[in-house]
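User: Please run a holo structure prediction.
Assistant: Happy to. Please share the sequence and the ligand.
User: Here you go; the ligand is adenosine-5'-triphosphate.
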Amino acid sequence: MNALIQVQGLEKSFGDQQVLRDVDFTATAGTVTVLLGPSGSGKTTVLRSLNVLETPESGLVRIGDASIDFGSPPTDKATYRRAVKALRARSGMVFQSHNLFPHKTVLGNLIEGPVQVQGRDPEEATAAARELLDQVGLSGREDAYPSQLSGGQQQRVGIARALALKPEVLLLDEPTSALDPELVGEVLSVIRDLAAENWTLVIVTHEVRFARDVADQVLFLDGGVVAERGGAEVLTEPREERTQRFLARMLDAG
Ligand SMILES: Nc1ncnc2c1ncn2[C@@H]1O[C@H](COP(=O)(O)OP(=O)(O)OP(=O)(O)O)[C@@H](O)[C@H]1O
Ligand SMILES: [Mg+2]
């Protein structure tokens, strides 16, 4: 099957520090890709490159029919901007902390992008937002403000808000790592449901047990390189010593 996500030969430096080296992977529609690796290994930079929040020096990023070859991008500025916009429209991003608009209600947060950015009909966007809130277990809370919600609820609104833009792919960067331990489960459970509904997900997570359950593909990054890759067996029977050491530390900590 044709891959929905294709990343090829991604190279990214900050100043003279190279943080991604020849990163490659593909993901088919409906699959879950888990990125893990030590702090500073480049996981966030991979996600941000998929969404063109970072501009790699070279390499190809393609999601669906939108792509940019960063090694030889369109030279015409307007063409490049269109390509960036097209690629961004295909993914939604969920960060460690939700960054909801504090002065908007839950519903306001969900319909802002669809109505203001995508120009969708407010009634249609509102109906879609209510459905998404139901999906993340928050129907009835549409009029609450973010400060009136728990961290886990806020993060679930963050997921619903990303989905409200109808992306083809959802990118999640450590979606539970800023939460109190007792709130982690409710957010992981929402992500499990998305995986079961065949959303295409790319997740950075240190929740190894969760990752074992949902991962179709695992990429272990170390020093900006994909040091090991495979299916969920990478999490149970890693071949590389550095993957083994990393997982042992994670399981100890958890
Ligand atoms: N905007 C930036 N400017 C300079 N250096 C950066 C920038 N963003 C990231 N880096 C560096 O790039 C490297 C990779 O960072 P990245 O955030 O991708 O790692 P990570 O694997 O997500 O780490 P963590 O697990 O701590 O979130 C790190 O050495 C980091 O310091
Ligand atoms: Mg990170």
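Strands lie at 5-14, 17-27, 32-36, 58-63, 66-69, 91-94, 169-173, 200-204, 217-222, 225-230.
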